[in-house]
Design brief:
Blueprint: E1 27-31, E2 38-42, E3 55-59, E4 61-63, E5 67-72, E6 78-88, E7 91-97, E8 107-110, E9 115-122, E10 128-134, H1 138-145, E11 171-174, H2 186-194, E12 198-204, E13 227-231, H3 233-244, E14 249-252, H4 253-263, E15 273-277, E16 292-296, H5 303-312, H6 314-326, E17 337-340
Parallel strand pairs: 1-17, 3-12, 3-14, 4-11, 14-16
Antiparallel strand pairs: 1-2, 5-6, 5-8, 6-7, 7-10, 8-9, 9-10, 12-13, 13-15, 16-17
């Protein structure tokens, strides 16, 4: 299967640059994965497509303000550091721009010395390990100095950091938001509960590897980066009970999908567990847990559009995307949503 099989034309003006004032007022395209039929709605109408006895699976990871702008000590050369994952104590794996100015031994100052870092090693794909030094609590300093790590296709400045967080974000650790969840409000979640729908919270810390472009022609040659996930006893019980009673598992976002599919055994039973997953879902994959998916519109030729195609069929998905372009839906992180059932 070729990467080019998942390409579609997208006018640049359809890339959403800012979040809507009301999270749940975004548009919703509903795709029937069997027939390929589509219909158009407002996101808050998602309750019309959820049934009593279903279980909604949400990813409660929290994005860290991982983008730091500093200067190389001794030269004042501007350096941008993106925190990817904590390796140990104060050592982080990072993406540094420009990398040529960040050789081992390089020292960087952030916030007039409030935070300093030293490059201690260069690892896979040129990422840098940086050891940070500071006084106080790292998370508080990061909240003060860091910016949200918005994707490069968003060029507008984000006025409110919380708009790149879900309303249920809890466990800190992501380098990017699970964007399908950005459409939910506390009121909408309460309406869903009142309808008799379970909500199971899982955690997957989103790494930038998820959004890394597929560069190989054969998609099976693509290497997925590993991401940390966790499912507790309560969430596992809710999901298993729903399946046993004939309800549907509707995942909010590709990250929730990848979490439950990684944690399931051959019979689709979920165990409470934590670990690292590099699962790559593309057409031909047999879903063990998932019955439906709430997701945003994804980049052409990305692993994310491949995952949606595994659920609904490549032809159905590309036809739905063509319809969304024609109807001028808003695309990507701050854009509109799709429900696949």
């Amino acid at each position: 299967m070729k990467r080019q099989d998942f390409y579609y034309e997208l006018p640049e003006e359809l890339i959403a640059q800012d979040p809507l004032e009301d999270r749940s007022s975004s548009r919703l395209l509903v795709l029937d994965r069997e027939s390929g039929a589509v219909s158009h709605h407002i996101f808050k109408e998602i309750t019309d497509y959820l049934r009593e006895g279903d279980c909604l699976v949400i990813n409660d990871t929290k994005v860290i303000p991982a983008r730091l702008i500093g200067s190389r000590i001794g030269t004042d050369a501007r350096i941008e550091v993106l925190l990817l994952k904590r390796k140990e104590n104060n050592v982080w794996e990072t993406l540094v721009k420009p990398g040529r100015k960040a050789r081992p031994g390089t020292k960087i100052s952030f916030g007039d010395g409030l935070l300093t870092g030293e490059v201690v090693d260069i690892v896979e794909e040129g990422n840098r390990l940086i050891r940070f030094s500071y006084e106080g609590i790292f998370e508080e300093i990061l909240d003060r100095l860091g910016q949200m790590p918005l994707p490069p296709y968003i060029t507008h400045q984000l006025q409110d950091k919380n708009r790149y967080q879900t309303v249920y974000a809890k466990h800190t650790g992501s380098a990017a938001a699970p964007t399908a969840g950005l459409h939910f409000t506390p009121e909408l979640l309460e309406n869903i509960r009142e309808k008799g729908i379970e909500i199971a919270k899982v955690t997957l810390h989103v790494g930038l590897g998820t959004f890394r472009p597929v560069k190989v022609d054969e998609i099976t040659d693509h290497h997925m980066h590993a991401e940390f996930y966790q499912i507790d006893e309560e969430a596992a019980a809710k999901i298993n009970r729903t399946k046993e009673c004939g309800g549907r598992i509707i995942c909010v976002g590709t990250t929730s999908c990848r979490t439950v599919e990684s944690a399931a055994d051959e019979q689709g039973v979920i165990a409470a567990k934590s670990g690292w997953t590099d699962i790559f879902i593309y057409p031909g994959y047999e879903f063990r847990v998932l019955d439906g998916l709430i997701t945003n519109f994804h980049l052409p030729e990305s692993t994310l559009i491949m995952l949606v195609s595994a659920l609904a069929g490549r032809e159905n998905v590309l036809a739905a995307y063509e319809e969304a372009v024609k109807e001028e839906y808003r695309f990507f992180s701050f854009g509109d949503a799709m429900l696949v059932v």
